[in-house]
Design a protein that fits this description.
With 526 residues, this protein is α+β, with helices and mostly antiparallel strands. The protein has three domains: 5-209, no CATH class; 236-396, Oxidoreductase, molybdopterin-binding domain (Sulfite Oxidase, Chain A, domain 2), CATH 3.90.420; 419-525, Sandwich (Immunoglobulin-like). It has ten helices and 19 strands. Strands 2-1-10-5-6 form a five-stranded mixed beta sheet. Strands 3, 4, 7, 8 and 9 form a five-stranded antiparallel beta sheet that branches. The two termini are 25 Å apart. The model is unreliable at 1-24 and 163-170 (pLDDT under 50).
């Protein structure tokens, strides 16, 4: 189950307060507060100016890039869409713990603090200089200055610490004086850090709000009543709202391209290297599509999948302007933060109509979903296609480049597999209803869904009622009513796509090219 970011923040604050309460020495308190102050100052500076990145995000990005595949799978399975928030919090907690030990060691060996905060500055600078759209000079000054400020906080607090680190609490006046200084500095650091984070988020949203999405040349109406079932508890809506749509990517902090200066460049095996501004794209014919996209890390029955109405320019129209050379085999999307994904060029021209999307559910792309533009390629898992915050498209050979996740053990070709999920009842739930209603969603983008069947306990497979599809790129809802006696039950579901192929019952984990198997739940009927 995903842990909400707000919960993670509460855990962080409680952890820090607990550490201050139970730590055996004031020197440890001082070190933790000093480390937290240095981190908070880097966050505040990053919030004030776009030219300095978040050091926490930069270091966390290195951790993400360096992590083996099983670590990523574990993080997503435990934290879900809050995996990046958990990593950021983990980075802060580790920094506080290191600061605690540095504080204790510095009582007798003052040089330890100088080395530790120097290493903090060096790590932050090295990590941050790899971030896009930054000022190297400002970044070095900001991070080095933050480290120096943290060292100053440590020196200030250590004045109240007895020479012996084991002499934890000397006199009551000393204790009170230390706690007052520590509490004050800790509060300032917390406010600065959270304030900086808020400024970073607000800047991205302000840039987006300055953009007005034009009316599409091909405008789709809202889903009609026959395209969705009503009044079924927990049934996922046919169109998922933006703020509920899943997000999985490697960006610890959402990139914030300036829509005024942002450009999308086409290069590589093209006849003409061309580039487009956001204004250029908005003047082109725009189209709307209902498309279901999914993360390859989605487990059977998982929620890393969603359907939205995307608005954008047809990718083929942009490729025609660049001119695709006959030898080009792979289309590579590159994000402003350096992330890459690649898929066969032929899929851009096979009728699935990929979009360079600039809108989502009738409004400009939210920052967390790729503002100002992203790729939407129906039928492909996101890790090979759905480049968010895109700034470059390169045409190359199939063997000439591997996207971000390919060297990390994931398959290079990744069509979305036919899947179905039970939303109602929830696994482990006790319900009271008669007749029993089973309901959920099923998807097979570009192929569509022909039928969905459910099996209750060891009974026969029962074909379900389906909603009218919004398109063959979008999922459908399904439901059925079954007779069942009170007690414990098990239900499973399977879907057959538009080509007549039924999803396999064979269980497989997401790696390397998507999970398979029937979604099975257990519940009790009261």
């Amino acid at each position: 189950m995903a842990i909400p970011t707000s919960t993670c923040r509460i855990v962080l604050i409680v952890t820090a307060m607990t550490a201050v309460t139970i730590s055996p020495t004031r020197a440890g308190f001082a070190g933790a507060i000093a480390a937290g102050s240095a981190l908070a100052l880097t966050e505040l500076i990053a919030g004030i100016t776009e030219r300095v990145p978040s050091a926490i995000a930069a270091v966390g990005g290195i951790v993400i890039d360096s992590s083996p595949r099983f670590v990523k799978e574990f993080a997503i399975s435990v934290f879900g869409t809050a995996d990046k928030g958990a990593l950021a919090i983990g980075t802060v907690i580790v920094s506080l713990l290191i600061g605690w030990f540095v504080g204790r060691a510095s009582v007798r060996r003052p040089w330890v603090a100088l080395v530790a905060f120097g290493a903090f500055a060096l790590l932050g600078i090295v990590a941050s200089l790899g971030e896009p759209q930054i000022s190297p000079v400002l970044t070095i000054v900001a991070i080095a200055g933050s480290a120096a400020a943290g060292l100053g906080v440590l020196r200030l607090l250590l004045r109240e610490v007895p020479e012996s680190p084991t002499d934890a609490l000397a006199t009551d006046p000393q204790r009170r004086q230390f706690l007052l200084k520590a509490a004050g500095l800790g509060t300032v650091a917390t406010v600065a850090g959270l304030g900086g984070r808020r400024l970073i988020i607000a800047r991205s949203e302000e840039a987006r709000q300055s953009v007005a999405l034009p009316v599409a040349e091909l405008t789709l109406p809202a889903p009609p009543p026959e395209a969705q079932f009503a009044a079924i508890p927990d049934l996922t809506p046919i169109v998922v709202p933006n703020d509920e749509f899943y997000r999985i990517d490697t960006a610890l902090v959402v990139p914030r391209p300036d829509p005024e200066s942002w450009r999308l460049k086409f290069r590589g095996m093209v006849d003409r290297e061309v580039e487009f501004s956001l204004d250029d794209l908005m003047k082109m014919p725009l189209y709307e599509q209902y498309v279901t996209i999914s993360c390859v890390s989605n487990e059977v029955g998982g929620d890393l999948v969603g359907n939205a109405k995307w608005t954008g320019v047809r990718l083929v129209d942009l490729l025609d302007q660049a001119g695709v050379q006959p030898a080009a085999e792979q289309l590579v999307g590159r994000s402003v933060d350096g992330w890459t994904a690649g898929f066969p060029v032929e899929l851009a021209f096979d009728g699935r109509d990929p979009l360079l999307a600039i809108g989502m559910n009738g409004e400009p792309l939210p920052p967390r979903h790729g503002f100002p533009a992203r790729l939407i390629v129906p039928g492909l898992y996101g890790y090979v296609s759905a480049t968010k915050w895109i700034e470059e498209i390169e045409l190359t050979t199939w063997d000439g480049f591997d996207g971000y996740w390919i060297p990390r053990g994931w398959a290079k070709e990744a069509p979305i597999k036919t899947q179905s999920r039970i939303d109602h009842p929830r696994n482990g739930e006790t319900i009271s209803e008669s007749p029993l209603v089973l309901a959920g969603v099923a998807w097979a983008p570009t192929r569509g869904i022909e039928k969905v069947e459910v099996q209750l306990d060891e009974g026969d497979w029962v074909e379900c009622e389906l909603t009218d599809p919004l398109s063959d790129r979008a999922w459908v809802q399904w439901k059925t009513e079954v007779a069942a006696q009170p007690g414990k039950h098990q239900a499973r579901v399977r879907a057959t796509d538009g080509t007549g192929v039924t999803q396999t019952a064979e269980r497989a984990r997401p790696a390397p090219d998507g999970a398979t198997g029937y979604h099975i739940i257990s519940f009790e009927l009261a």
